[in-house]
Fold:
Amino acid sequence: MGRKRKGFKSIIFENREITGIAEESRSVCRTDDGIVCFVEGAVPGDVVDVLVTQKKKGFYFGAVHNLVEASPDRIKAPCKHFGICGGCKWQHFHYAGQLREKENKVLQAMLRIGKTEPQEFQPILGCGEEFFYRNKLEFTFSNKRWLEPEEMSSEGDILKEPGLGFHRAGAFDKVVDIEECMLQPDPSNAIRNFVKAFAIRMNWTFFNVRQREGFLRNLMVKTSSIGEVMVLLSFHYKDDEAIGALMEAIMTNFPEITTLVYVINEKANDTFLDLPIEIYHGPGYIVEKLGEVKYRLGPKSFFQTNTKQAVRLYDLALEFAGLQPTDHVYDLYTGLGSIALYASSRCKSIVGVENVAPAIEDARANADWNGISNATFVVGNVEDVVDTGFITKYGRPDVVITDPPRAGMHERVIDTLLQLECPKIVYISCNPSTQARDVAMLSTKYNLEKLRAVDMFPQTNHIESVALLTLKK
Structure:
């Protein structure tokens, strides 16, 4: 339930019908006077009494106070941690209903924000795996796990028990101890539970984020579709004897691990991208495969976290692109070149641009490793790099593929695309709102020919969409 704002007088709206979904896995209803209320814990089709926890200009925030009538799409969530850990907030929403609402979210964003109707709006591409679809999870050690009220002592004291799991929303210093997570396949759960039990048996300390003390900080598990497994442990300080004991125990019990690495992080935050990685076992990376292309993924590599659905997403993007053997292609916001390398066999040349230098290093290394010679990767901000000099050097593209972050494309990038007048733009987005905004700006010269939603993350509110824009004649 959402937190009640201090000094806010409670309001209950009775018998509200939930009509749709919103950001952060909230649902939507309206008051009698038409004001929007964003509700936690409801699914479309429910009739609920809503306890309002916040009022902001023009709308309310609330949570389900009483379920009056359950939606036909409401189901029992299969995960024992549902509603506590803060992840997978749509587990109580039938997957067919999730797809329906996500598809509508993409279309409505384009109609309302983009003021553009696609010539062809294709049915949403659902995920074949509703659970156990992620290839990467990160867990946090905490000296105080989150406890439900019934777990507290009779005096109301919070018992200080260590935990290994996910941060509870709104409680940065506590984690929900996870026994079984339904997001990542084996051996993820077994590894996490073993490490926690071994650490408790050895009487090692779990990190206290407030006091910045404790030995164990984070655990990351990466898996690949070809069966490789990477485990990374983050420690607050160096203790060779303890680290060696844990690493040996992990390898003894999980010989299927192909790479075991660790990092010493003495900083206040958990990020390790600027820290050296110590390799204990294996090559220091795992291998993933999309189609015929193999990717070496290190602990710091960014990659699509749903491998099987990434293949479907990329296939859709390339279907929209309709690449020909003579085509020159730009891949903007290329990351480690996953799309560029995947598409390289279908075109004459492809140039990827990305502002994260280590990602470009990964892209170049993976191109060399696969023997791909027609893919070039350039580091820099897309809005700064792609200019007339860039176009002169690399040639005018026949197709532009763009996959920007949630903020969408920089306005200067859109201006460049309008001046470039490339025949086709394939726009992959993780935020339908910013995609719609950008399509509106491009609509002076481009038609929105096709649009399709792609669900990469079942049980969450996240949704991808792919748009094909063609130059007006």
Q: What stands out?
A: The two ends are 53 Å apart (CA to CA). DSSP finds ten helices and 23 strands in the chain. The chain has a mean pLDDT of 94. The first helix runs from residue 95 to 112.
